[in-house]
Design goal:
alpha+beta, Nuclear Transport Factor 2, Chain: A, 5-stranded mixed beta sheet, two-stranded antiparallel sheet, 4 helices, 7 strands, about 30% helix, about 40% strand
């Protein structure tokens, strides 16, 4: 079994290379992504999201600031930087290119199954990301 940090570095390298096959190869059967803004996403949905991000922010870079490995679990502080230089469509919203620099910190908690990522939980602020693109975000509670 490969060291989890090496596997995480391999995943990030595939992401930076915009290597769809390489990213997909890192996901276990039944892979599931979860975040504050996405209840659950499959590997295929994650690739569609990635391709949209790569289109809207083609210079997007992930920096692993701090990584903790404990058995099959990995926690990583991740700095994401990019320039919003292309059309970006997220969650039914469209953001024309602004040329603005974007930066966000997030935390990833990954669970591995063998040498593959089984779950990826991401904790970050999508609100901050879209506000940096010039959008005004209002959060309102749902009616009970």
């Amino acid at each position: 079994m490969t060291d989890r940090r090496i596997l995480l570095d391999r995943f990030v390298a595939s992401w930076h290379a915009r290597d769809v096959a390489g990213v997909l190869a890192m996901f276990a059967d039944g892979f599931e992504y979860r975040s504050a803004s996405t209840h659950s996403a499959s590997a295929e949905a994650m690739i569609a999201f990635a391709q949209e991000m790569w289109r809207g922010t083609p210079d997007e870079r992930l920096e692993l600031v701090n990584v903790i490995v404990q058995g099959d679990r990995v926690a990583a502080e991740v700095r994401t930087t990019a320039t919003h230089s292309g059309q970006l469509d997220l969650a039914g919203l469209s953001f024309p290119a602004t040329g603005r620099s974007l930066a966000i910190m997030s935390v990833w908690v990954l669970t591995f199954a063998g040498d593959h990522i089984a779950t990826w939980n991401e904790y970050g602020s999508l609100k901050s990301w879209v506000e940096q693109m010039g959008a005004t975000v209002t959060i309102t509670p749902h009616d009970a």
